[in-house]
Amino acid sequence: MGVIYLVRHGQAANYSSSPDSPLTSIGQQQAENVGAELARRGLGGVRVLHGGMKRQRQTAEAITMALGSEPQQDDRWDEYDYKEIVGNSRMRRLASVNTVKSLAKGNTQAILEDGLAQWASTDSSGEYAESYTRFQQRVLAAMADATQLDGDTVVATSAGVIGMIIADLWGGSVSNWLTAQRVVINSSITSLVNGKRGISLLAFNDHTHLIGDGGNRDLVTYR
Question: Which residues form a coiled coil (predicted)?
Fold first, then answer.
């Protein structure tokens, strides 16, 4: 009965400049902290998978340095295309406001939430290079394959991917996915066990390893 540890990547540079941004200095520290935490849990030498994005790969590299493992890339663990989804959301909003300036005053999170909801709707799937359904299918296929591997597995991935796996356990609705992926903290650990009755959630979004002396939360970030 193996445990799968889903680790969100450390904080990345501004997504708006590039959807494949590297880790920031804070993100690198977060990645090193989560690697140390996994080593403390006795996971030395375990399998470490990661998606193809820089922030995922760099997080996996920090983890493998701590665990003495070799990272293995599987692009199915990649995040959705943030830039495309937000771009489409902005274009829709521009159609309903008078100026770009008024859009700039809008809530960035609301624009993302709107974009994700639109992306997940069946009537807009043709607007994107990868539909929500295709994203869901590849993520769940990657998870299914991970459950067939012997022993424990660590996966360095992203919030949307982790949220999709959690939402599937909760019934698979879009609203559950939006709720789960919204709160995943950088370099947090979500643990699942694959037993005789299938996959069970052990811990979601564990980030105690990011809290410093005296309760310092400088390393607790969402973006």
Answer: none
Residues 74 and 174 placed together within one structural domain of the fold = yes
Rounded distance, CA 172 to CA 165, Å?
Answer: 9
pTM of the model: 0.91
The answer on pLDDT for 102 being more than 60 is no
Looking at the fold, whether 38 and 84 belong to one and the same domain comes out as: no
> Domain count of the chain?
2
pLDDT tens per residue across span 123-171: 665 778 899 999 999 999 999 999 999 999 999 999 999 999 999 999 9
| Exposed / middle / buried, residue 81 (Cβ in 10 Å: 0-12, 13-18, 19+) | middle
The boundaries of the domain holding residue 109 are 80-120
